[in-house]
Each structure stands twice: as structure tokens, then as C-alpha cells.
Amino acid sequence: MGMEKHSIEKLKEIARDIRVSCIKMIAAAGSGHPGGSLSLAEIVTAFYFRLLRHDPKNPNWKDRDRFVLSKGHGVPALYAAMAYSGYFPVEQLMTLRQLGSPLQGHPDRARLPGIEASTGSLGQGLSIAQGIALATRIDGSDAMVYCVMGDGEIQEGQVWEAAMSVPMHKLDHVCAIIDWNKGQIDGQVKDVMNIEPIADKWKSFGWNVLEVDGHDLSEIIAAVESAKDNAKQKSGKPTLIVADTLKGKGVKFMEDGKNAWHGSAPNQEQTEAAINELLKGKV
Amino acid sequence: MSTKPVATRQIFGETLARIGEKYPEIVVLDADLSKSTKSELFAKKYPNRFFEMGISEANMIGVGAGLALSGKVPFICSFGAFVTGRFDQIRMSVSYAKARVRIVGTHAGVGIGEDGHSQMALEDLACMRTLPEMAVLQPGDDLETAAMVEELVHYPHPAYLRLTRQNVPRLHKEGTTFKIGKFQKISDGSDGVVFATGGVLSTAYEAIQALKQGGLSLELVNASSIKPLDETYLSQAIQKHKEIITIEDHYVIGGLGGAVAEYMAEHPGSRLHRIGVYDTFGQSGTPEDLYEHYGLSATKLKEQIQKIFR
Ligand SMILES: Cc1ncc(C[n+]2csc(CCOP(=O)(O)OP(=O)(O)O)c2C)c(N)n1
């Protein structure tokens, strides 16, 4: 379905609104993962408002592009993008993590139409994306299959099994994105379990690797468009986009480089400060 | 009881940090959850004997096995769901190899609350129970956790230690002697017996106190050693009581309820009532809401027990 084509300025506003929603939702729930949600704001905006071929009113549309959020704890950003693009009413965002809500703490495809994979145990999304990609190829669909992973997440061995397997099966309609925000829980990724050089590793596994500023909407869009071209031309190579991001992006005290905001909710005062900062910021 | 309720994971971390000096053979591994499993308390004190493995649980299990096979006493830590999720690594590298790895799984059951099903260990006891020689343990309070962690240093087989995220009150008396393979009686009763394990021991205790006021007298047992199961205690209980109840924050399939059901199928005589999570998924919610929803709160336990005796 063609989405209305928003200007980059408009997309920036949407990304900001998504950040504000993440803060509000997590504060209302009293728990959640602000750091790794905020780093995703431009990525989910670019996908849900520009890049995805999807129909929010028909989430099971056979030829839709698939978006798998493998780093499931970042789901508040995805929920906000889904709500703003029309999958469900925006008011429902505030039920995050409440008993019975379709907006589970981690994505649950059985409860929320539009969620492609139930995640939250890290390292599994890319394999699922591969399975979806094999199926769409068998079915003759030209859908793209996207998968967003965390940089800490790629420490999981299964990610590298999939990294080997996707190019082997020539799934050029798979496009994986790494939210390279440098943090995890026990510390910074380079100190906990170094994964660098990311681009070289994936290149050597047979991926077409692109590096972008993960907070620059134009760069994200250009990179994903080139992944789509690459699929259209049947290059046989999947694409990996390393998105250079900041954990906690947009809220100064959450951009601490210490992961204090990996998994804690802001109190009322912090919530107000965060929202003020986001709304005041130039978009 | 005078002490403040405390999470068993907290006591686990504190105990390791306390006994680390006495046992230089202890090494501790974690997979990017040391703040949550509380292994960081050991890490801070003995940085040379703590190994950060990153988000790589399968590798951590194998590394733990190698350390154990070389004379170390490794405690490998993560959420129960993630570590027991790597079942074949445990089955081969730990269990079959007879590697004395201490697998520590925190964040047991729906009691973890808002994070939801993906982070809740609900099948870990069932998985671990199937492995030969594997001890499967779930301490009921702070005193028992401390005793168990130290006993595990010497225990001759691999073991799985299941710990709570949430705080639990002290239910044992100071000076109690604990032993792997032995249940602990918390209170006497003549109408039936309740075996409870882990985070629900305290809600079971509350329910039983409330029922006592209504004239129903139930024995309460802390079934912390799910394997080896305390068959001596069980066989005596079956002789004494007609109604046997198990309570756990885990699937009734394969958990404490499963273990007792297996025993009672071969030693019939009383009726078994299993209370726990029934063949369904966990979900997000406050721990309190979830305990209500899944029937594990004191109020809900009381109702379910009353039905049994109606
Ligand atoms: C298999 C598994 N192990 C551990 C966890 C606990 N956990 C949740 S988030 C996280 C850190 C993730 O780091 P990263 O992928 O870099 O995400 P971000 O920094 O963007 O939040 C961990 C270890 C998990 N969810 N799944």
C-alpha cells in the first residue's frame, strides 16, 4: 500500500513523537527499556512511514514486506510507529505491559496483528527472517524481509549461523539492520564482548554491507532503497546495514554511555525533563 | 518475622561474594545479566575469577563445563529461561560429561512481572529434571539460599539453582540445617499437606494462615529439593494425609507437581492437587496482577484450597 510520502522534515517530527511516546509509555508502565528504544526512533520511522510496503489495516496482507524486531526489548519504538501509522489506536500505547494488553513487554505476534515474530530472547530474529524469506521466494512474492538486531545481540552464536546461511541461500531480499548503539547491560559492547569490526565480519560472511548514521533519516532511506534495488537485480547477496546510533538518543541524561537507562523507567520528574527536552529540541 | 523480605538472587550474589575467599576454586560466569543475577557482587570482589561471556549463553555453558572438568567450581548465571533454553549444551557438555557445573537461573516464573513470557522461566524445572544426576533446587528464603549455595560448592553432581527476581520473606528459623534432597517442614497441620516451592512459598504460607482461622489445618512443606526428591518425606506424608497439594510458579507439567505426580502414580493412596501455571503462556503485568491471574496469590490459593476441602 502506498503510504503518503512524507518530507524528511515531517519524518523527523514523527521520530520525535515516537521518542516522546516511548518515554511516556515506559514511565506509565513503570518498567521497560528506554535506551534501546530511543536509539531505534529514526529506524522505525523510516520503515513504517517510507520504506515498508504494508497496509496497517490489513496486517496479514500476503505481499507485505516483513519487519522482524529481533531485539525485542526495543519494542516501545515499534509500537509507537505502528500506532502512528494506523495499526491500532494511539491511546492503546499507554497500556504497555499491563495485564491483558496486546502490547506485551516484548513483542508477541499472537496478541498483536502486525508483529511478525515473537522475540525477547535475543539472537533468534535473523533465523526467523531467513525462514520467512525462503517462504516468500517459494511463493513468488517480491516482498522484502527486514530484521533489526542489537549490537550486543550479535554476540549470540545463532546470529552467525544465520549470517552464514542467508547468503548461502542467496536471499538477496533479506536486509538486516544492526542498531550499533555501543551499549548493552553489563557495560559497553567493546568491553563486555567485542564484536568489531562489524562490517568486515559480515562482508566476509557474504553480505553486502552499508554503513549509515542511524539517526539520519535520509541516509537510512537511501541505504534501504539500495538494498531493495539489490534484491530487484537479483544480486544473490543479502544486505546488512550498520546503523551508527546512540543509546538513549534524544534525552541527554539517557545518553550516558553507561547503560543506566538500559532497563529502567524514568520517574515523574525525569519523565517531564525528558519530554521537555524532546519537544524543545530542533527537529 | 523480623528480617526484611529479600530476593533469593540477591542472597545468592552476597553468599558467593562472602564465601569466595574460602573457596578459591569458585569461578563465576555471566552472560550480560550480572546486575540482574547479582553475580556482579562476586565480580566486584574477585575480578580475576569472574568471566563476562557476553550475550552467549550456549558458549557460557560449554566454557563452564571445561572449567568444571579442570577442577574449578563454576557458577554460570543468566535468566533461567535463557540458560535452560540451551538444553543440548547442558545435556551434553554438562550432564553427560558429569561436569560439576552449577547452573544458576534467576527470574523464575510469572513472578518477574512486566517483562512478560519471553523472560519467564516456566519450564526450566521440567527440562532440568530429566537429566540424570542433575540436582534441581529452588530455595525458599534467604537462609536456605545461603546454605544451598555453600553446599553446592561440595555437591558431587551438576546442579540447577532456580532463584526469584522478587523479594520473599524469611520462613525458616535461624540455625535451621538444610540439606540437598531434604524438604523442610514450615508448619504442622492435620487436614492435608501443601508442598510449595520458591516464590509461592510465602503466598502459600499466607493462604494457610488464613485457612487456619476458618478451621482448616494444613501442613506446609518447603519443597526446595525437586531433584533429588525427598521421597522419605513424601511417603510419610502420603501415609498421614489424604489430600496432597503442590504449589509452584512453574508449569504443573514436569515441575514439582509433575515430580510428585510421578511418585504418587507409583505409590498411590492419597489424592494429588497440583496448583501452578497450566499449559498456557505467561504475559506482562505487575507481579501482583499476574499472581492473581494465574491463581498464585494468597487469596487465589486460599480459594483453590477451600474448593478441595469443600
Ligand atoms: C538470550 C537472551 N539473553 C539475555 C537477554 C537479556 N537482555 C535483554 S537486553 C540485553 C542487552 C542487549 O544489548 P543490545 O543488543 O546491544 O541492545 P540495546 O543496547 O540496543 O538495548 C540483554 C542481555 C535476553 N533478552 N535474551
Could you please describe the fold and organization of this structure?
The complex is a heterodimer of chains A (283) and B (310). With 283 residues, chain A is of the alpha/beta class. Chain A has a single domain (8-280), classed as Rossmann fold, CATH 3.40.50.970. In chain A, 40% of the residues lie in helices and 10% in strands. Chain A is built from 10 helices and 5 strands; from the N terminus they run αααβααβαβααβαβα. Chain A has helices at residues 8-29, 34-38, 41-51, 75-84, 125-138, 157-168, 189-192, 198-204, 217-232, 268-280, and strands spanning 66-69, 145-150, 174-180, 208-213, 239-244. Chain A has a 5-stranded parallel sheet with strand order 1-2-3-5-4, sandwiched between helices. In chain A, β2 (145-150), α6 (157-168) and β3 form a beta-alpha-beta unit. The mean pLDDT of chain A is 97. In chain B, β6 (135-137), α8 (142-154) and β7 form a beta-alpha-beta unit. Helices cover 39% and strands 21% of the residues of chain B. Chain B is α/β, with parallel strands linked by helices. A 7-stranded mixed sheet of chain B has the order 3-2-4-5-7-6-12, sandwiched between helices. Chain B has a 5-stranded mixed sheet with strand order 9-11-10-13-14, with helices on both faces. In chain B, α1 packs across α8, α4 runs parallel beside α6 and α9 (201-213) crosses α13. Chain B folds into 2 domains: 6-168, Thiamin diphosphate (ThDP)-binding fold, Pyr/PP domains (Rossmann fold, 3-Layer(aba) Sandwich); 184-308, Rossmann fold, CATH 3.40.50.920. Chain B is globular and about 60 Å long. The structure holds thiamine diphosphate.
Write the layout of secondary structure elements.
The complex is a heterodimer of chains A (283) and B (310).
Chain A: H1 8-29, H2 34-38, H3 41-51, E1 66-69, H4 75-84, H5 125-138, E2 145-150, H6 157-168, E3 174-180, H7 189-192, H8 198-204, E4 208-213, H9 217-232, E5 239-244, H10 268-280
Helix pairs in contact in A: 1-3, 1-4, 1-10, 3-4, 3-9, 5-6
Chain B: E1 6-7, H1 8-19, E2 26-30, H2 34-37, H3 40-45, E3 50-52, H4 57-69, E4 73-79, H5 80-84, H6 87-96, E5 102-106, H7 124-129, E6 135-137, H8 142-154, E7 159-162, E8 167-168, E9 184-187, E10 192-197, H9 201-213, E11 218-222, E12 225-227, H10 231-240, E13 243-251, H11 256-266, E14 271-277, H12 287-293, H13 298-309
Parallel strand pairs in B: 2-3, 2-4, 4-5, 5-7, 6-7, 10-11, 10-13, 13-14
Antiparallel strand pairs in B: 1-8, 6-12, 9-11
Helix pairs in contact in B: 1-8, 4-6, 9-13
Bound molecules: thiamine diphosphate.
